[in-house]
Amino acid sequence: MAFEGLADRLQSTLSKIKGKGKVTEADVKTMMREVRLALLEADVNFKVVKDFIANVKERAVGQEVLKSLTPGQQVIKVVNEELTKLMGGEQSKIAVAKKPPTVVMMVGLQGAGKTTTTGKLANHLRKSYNRKPLLVAADIYRPAAIKQLETLGTQLDMPVFSLGDQVSPVEIAKQAIEKAKEEHHDYVLIDTAGRLHIDESLMGELQQVKDAVNPDEILLVVDAMTGQDAVNVAESFNEQLDITGVVLTKLDGDTRGGAALSVKAVTNTPVKFAGMGEKLDALEPFHPDRMASRILG
Ligand code: GDP
């Protein structure tokens, strides 16, 4: 399960302080040393850990007194609130354009789960908001990508716009939006090209698509299992494209948690969704508060 190691360590550390009727500065210090190690071991970005510890220490020591909680419980409450804040605080929802269709560009490296997530997101939009998305196959380089999206479309009983692999992604995206307008689709989800690594030609192409369609949302799909690599990928994509949100996939696996806890702080871009499996219904809106509570038990 995701975050297992981190959850175990934090919970056992915090349980030592939980029942305490009096929490001294030394108690907080000892506890925070353990929390720091737990976070580093979970592959959370070094600087993120440092700031987090400083914030918790400051609040936990000069703590506001609440009658309903023991001092120990109050420290835990502070940790919970700071973890929530770290992951973005409030839940960040997907954009809705004032005038439909809302155009969403899906970007990411190969294997992260971009095409699958495009299908999952379409399913989520229909199921939760009664939307009518158009899926767009604009990944013309990976041989199986177009077919894969078409198969997902068939499974979902949703249309997929494709012009094969001989037309430029910019042209595909533009024509798809025209078609969406004609057929009254309220979301256009563009599955763009991925590569194994970030390179100039990939970014150049994505930039061209962005310039051509002016998307309301650019969602970066990253594999949570890759830890700090996922965060570095997010940083690069954000510098080049100004992404508006991140989807963390494979949170159903045994990821240590580093990516989930660092992405927002490092890139200032919220995680909007979490991929929780391979099936088409395995996409969940990302709730920082629920995630924090899950980690702290
Ligand atoms: P793309 O190259 O980024 O388009 O990646 P794909 O969409 O083809 O996904 C790569 C692999 O990851 C596939 O086997 C997917 O089933 C799998 N995958 C995608 N999202 C998740 C997820 O949230 N959890 C799990 N366990 N597998 C996922």
Automatic annotation (TrEMBL):
UniProt catalytic activity: GTP + H2O = GDP + phosphate + H(+)
Keywords: Cytoplasm, GTP-binding, Hydrolase, Nucleotide-binding, Ribonucleoprotein, RNA-binding, Signal recognition particle
UniProt subunit comment: Part of the signal recognition particle protein translocation system, which is composed of SRP and FtsY.
Biological source species: Anaerobacillus arseniciselenatis
Free-text comment on this protein's domains from its UniProt entry: Composed of three domains: the N-terminal N domain, which is responsible for interactions with the ribosome, the central G domain, which binds GTP, and the C-terminal M domain, which binds the RNA and the signal sequence of the RNC.
Sequence similarity: Belongs to the GTP-binding SRP family. SRP54 subfamily.
E.C. numbers: 3.6.5.4
Its biological purpose: Involved in targeting and insertion of nascent membrane proteins into the cytoplasmic membrane. Binds to the hydrophobic signal sequence of the ribosome-nascent chain (RNC) as it emerges from the ribosomes. The SRP-RNC complex is then targeted to the cytoplasmic membrane where it interacts with the SRP receptor FtsY. Interaction with FtsY leads to the transfer of the RNC complex to the Sec translocase for insertion into the membrane, the hydrolysis of GTP by both Ffh and FtsY, and the dissociation of the SRP-FtsY complex into the individual components.
Residue ranges of domain SRP54-type proteins GTP-binding in the record: 270-283
Gene Ontology cellular-component terms listed: signal recognition particle
Name this protein carries in UniProt: Signal recognition particle protein
GO molecular function: 7S RNA binding; GTP binding; GTPase activity
Keyword Ribonucleoprotein: yes
Subcellular location, principal: cytoplasm
Annotated GO biological process: SRP-dependent cotranslational protein targeting to membrane
Enzyme category, top tier: hydrolase
